[in-house]
Structures are given as structure tokens and as C-alpha cells.
Amino acid sequence: MSKLISLSPAAPWAELRVTEADWKAADPAVLGTLLSHMHLIRAFEETVVGLALDGLVHGPAHSSIGQEGGAAGALAMLTAADQVNGSHRGHHHFLSKSLAYLMPSGVDPRAALTQPVQALLQRTLAEILGLSQGFCHGRGGSMHLRWEKAGVTGTNAIVGGGVPLAAGSAWAHRHAGSDAVAVTFFGDGAVNIGSVLETMNLAAAWKLPLCFFIENNRYAVSTNVEEATAEPRLSARGLAFNIPSWKVDGMDVYAVHLTMQRALAHMRQGKGPVVIEADVYRYLHQNGGFPGSAFGYRSKEEEAAWRQRDPLDHLAARMQALGMITAAEVEALRARMQAAMQQAVEALTEADPAGKAGKKRIRLELWPDPGFRDVGLRGDLHELDGARCEEESSFKGALHERKFIDVIADTLDRRMAADERIVVLGEDVHRLKGGTNGATRGLKEKYPTRVLGTPISENAFAGLGGGMAMDGRFRPVVEFMYPDFLWVAADQVFNQIGKARHMFGGDSKMPLVLRSKVAMGTGYGSQHSMDPAGIFATSPGWRIVAPSTPFDYVGLMHAALQLEDPVLVIEHVDLYASSGLAPVDDFDYQTSFGKAAVRREGSALTVLTYLSMVRHSLEAVEQTGVDAEVIDLRWLDRASLDWETIGASIRKTNNVLIVEQGARGTSYGAWLADEIQRRFFDWLDQPIQRVTGGEASPSISKVLERAACARTEEVVEGLERVMREQGAPLRA
User: Residue 582 — φ and ψ, nearest 5°?
Assistant: First the structure.
């Protein structure tokens, strides 16, 4: 008969409860600070709900009334260096961490509020109302709150979306030799999401000082936690990753505080991440000013039972019993916070002359100027001022025929040697003599702490790179082994990294480079062969470079690593084994920002192309004899394209053929054609023509793969089609 041996998790898991001895030993200053934090949050949230009911909050206002104990208990005693991010229900996280930054010695519940605290309340409220004086200039609203100076790296509207970013903050703290920590807040819904679990695994494997703080308020919108998971004790998730985990009553703020002190000691000693699950309760519905019972998914009796355990009342009663505060002083504290909020409201609103008596409107002069719409989507490029720029034709250094892939490795080596902030991360980048293609050859040996081989978890490590970039102390180079994997990490790539700079007001930076390769022709099939240019070109925030020669790779990667924006660097497997002129010992030049390269001058037709299709286009022109001007775009995104060179060529040739290799549906050329006809319609003698791959992604079959992607033969057909429709002779 089989023998069963019981197994136990390696990490401890416990529930912490406060004893009478704990209460008697409590520091009055700590309890007073916790009470003050919670009352400030409660008054703020009640004000927001009231404004929402009056129609003055545009969009959602996810209230944290009832959940104050989790945020205050976790954050009131953090340092300015510690960093926090939160969820769509994040006002309390933002306020508590910001108040701790402004009042690092604690808050006396009897004292008047200082002017900086009053300003905090007004600016936070202004942000939620969408006004210019808000922390994100009105762009973030209720769900996207960031104050970098206070250590709030950003609350997040995507469930679980901020968790990988927090891992980047934690990595930065650890690598910088600091004992600072990162805390990421999320709820019962996010705990089962892949990005959260991926990040738990990565943080545990790398011993990052990251607290996964689960606010278990028992409901998503209306689905309760028992419906959503077979293990509703959500802190159990930590055990799968060997993460010490605690469960605590979040309605008891002092219990949360004591739990957090244990967690902080663990993290600050370099022992890695922790999980804290705080049982809290959302008094109101997912959004708005009505309770959940009004929508039928929970009972009034359940709500009343939780309100009997209100965290503010519980702590006040304990403090009164210990003689630390009087009932009158608690009432005065509440009145003081309400008065502060009323002052903030009055500063932002005025009587509505078109409304009924007592109706308010936002002060008209406080709205953002519509012209601010796109400001800060990308940087102003000042970081490139004074750059030494070179072209192959004018380069004075030694140039030898060299393999493209070797030049990639040498370029990364030189940039890492010149800039200690650069960190390379991705799957297998530290092994196999430079990853799967050799692009990171020798880097792990030279920079052992800055070349990070990651688990297979694109969501986690892409987001970690984003968090590192937002932290500002490091410049990550993230490698996706194949660009198709971007769909796995699409939230981090597009919702987080691409949007962060603009979403948080345009003042922050996102210096991240994402490398990936087009692998058409390798037989890897539909899920490993895409060209990502078209997807990224239509996604705000990203810059895109596509080097077609080894010489250009040096300059384009150098420029990408100087930019304060996220940059996609696209490579191609067909180019890896190819050779071309490249520097031997001078890798310190850039390719001029936004400058295309005219690879062949001509007068009959403008060919716009990039990557390996530059060579195929030149071959096709040679075969057909068409007097085409072949332009290697190099910079592909809307803000970086060389419209001057493109426009000059179109005015000369009056014909355009866009040449790319990949599938028609995700085509870069479709976007580019639309943009060109808007800009240069009057100079076009016929519709813009395109050469692309097929509608379907490439297949494994060698024959079907070849049929699915464009090469020289398809460019020949495209050239002949343009000239035929123009009615011009094929050869001059």
C-alpha cells in the first residue's frame, strides 16, 4: 500500500492578534498618529463621495471608507525612502503615505493641521476632480495618484497592474544598498491574477524587499471572495513561493501596525518579500455613495455587523480606555478634519450661477487648458543635446566587416561600461553564451549584478523593468525573446510603461529599452514570428528604432539608452548572421535623432522600409531597374519619423511604396500610409502602394512560412505594380 508523507510549507504563515498586554505597552504617539491618519482619510473620502453625488466628480470615485485601518496601519510609520503603489481604490494609500512623508515624527490628534497637510488635501482633491493643481495635473483623477517625492509611485486602475512595477522599486532599493522597502496594495480580486503570482515568484527568487499587501474586502464589484476562490484565506498564496505571510484583522489598525513592524524587520534585514492579508470591509458599493445592499449582493445585516467594528471607533475606544484621549478630543479631531476638507472644497468650487440655490460647480479657471492634452506624452529630448552623431559615410574611426550579432553584444558592453545605471534583464540573457542568439555575450561575466536572468514571466519582469525605470536610479534593457510575447505582457507594456509618463502628469520619466527580434523565416510559427512595429506605432508613449546595419545599431542603441522615454529596439534574425561595416573600438556615437537614411537615390518612386527589408528592397530595385529612392526609416514612431526626408522624396517622385515583411493585420505600413496621405496627398499621383506579408501569421511549414512573409520577390512585384499603374516604363 502506498505511503503518504505529509509535507509542510517552508515559509511561516500566521494570524496576528493584539493582546491586552500589547495595548498596555502601546506608544501613545503611535496610536495618536494612527487615529489621525484614519480620520484624515475618512473625512477626505466622505467629501469625495458627497462631491460625486453632486455630479462634480467625472468618472469613478472608489471610496475606501471602512478600509482606513489597512492603509494607516501599514503606512503611517514608513520612511520617505520607502515606496508605495496601490490599486484603483487607492485614495487611502496615497493620503497615508503622503501624510507620513509630511509628518515623519507622527501626528498629534489634538494639534491643528499644518499648511502642508492642508495643501495635500486640496491637491489630492483637485486631482480627483481633474484639475490643473492636482498632483498629476488632472490627468490621473481618482485612480492614478502619484507623488514621487513622498514615495507614492502611483495608484493603478488595472487590477493587479501595479504589482510588477513595485517589484522594480524593490529591486532598485536592494541593488542601491538601501534598506528601504516597497509596498504594493491590491485586493481579493487581484490575488488570483497572473501578474501578481508571477511577481510573487520573482520577488521571492530574488529576495526583494517587497510587501504584498492584500486588502481583502470580500468583494470584487459584487462577486464575493468565496465565489472567486476555493481558498479564501488569501495570504495562503505566499506559501507557494516560500514567502512569510501574515493574516490580520484590518479593522484593528494597531494589529495591522504590529504586523507591518514584523514585516518591515524581515524586509530591511534583506530576507526578501512578505505577504500581509488584512480583512477589511468596503462600506459602500464598488463606486459611488450607496451601500452594496442597495444593489442586492449583500445584506444590510452584514453591513451593519461590519460597521459595528469600525476601525476609527475601535481605536478611539481603546485609547479612551487607556486614558490617552477623551471623547471630546476625538470629536474635535473629526471636526477639524471635516473643516479642512470643507476649506479644500471651497478653494476648488464656487456657486453655480445656472443652478439651484446651494448648487456648486468647479471654479472655471482651475480646469486644465485643452492645449495640455498631449504635453508630456514623451520627453522634450533635452537629454540628447550635444550628442556626437555619426553616419557611416563620415565616420573617422576604424570600420571592419563584422557580424551584426557581435556588434549588438559589443554595443551593450560599451554602454554598460559607460553607464552603471544600465541593467539587462530577460529570459536566459545570462546563459548560453549571450542568450538564445548571443546578443548578451560576455555581459554576465563583466557585470554580474546587472545582468538578470529572469523566470519565464513576461508580465512580471517587464513590469519590474518599468518600476526600475520609474524609480530613476537605473535604466533597464528588457529583452523579449520573441516579440509575440508582448501579448503576454501587454498590460505592463502598453497600460503601464507606455502610458505612465503621460498619465501621471507628464513630469515623470520612463527610461526603458525593450529589445526583441523579428524571427520570420526560422520555422518558429505563428506565435514566435511577428513584427511588432505596427502594434507599438499605434500605442501612445513608445518610441521605436529599427537598425538595418551594424553601424546604425551602435548609434541607435546609444540614442535609445539616452532617451527618457520607453524605446522599442527591433532586431531581425536575418540580420544577426549578416555582416557589414561596423566600428572596432569607437562605440560612443549616436545616430541623429529622427533621421532616416537614403540608401539609394531615385526619381520615379519612394520606397519606405526598415530592418531586413532594406536589403530586399535594394535587391528588387536592382532586378527591376526601377529608378526608386529607397529610404531606411530607422526611427518608426509618429514623433520620431523623419518627415522632412520622406516629404522631400515624395515631392520628387510623387509615388510611394511601403515595404514590410510581416502580416497585413498588424501592419506598420497601414498606419504609415494613412499618415502620409494626410500630409502629402497633393503630391501623390496614385494611391500609396504596399508590400506586406499575408493576412495570416507565418506557419511552421517552410512553404507556408515563405508564402506568409515578404522578401525580394514580393518587392519586385510591388515595384512593377506601382510602375504599371502609373503608366510608366519599368526601366528608365
Answer: -150, 155
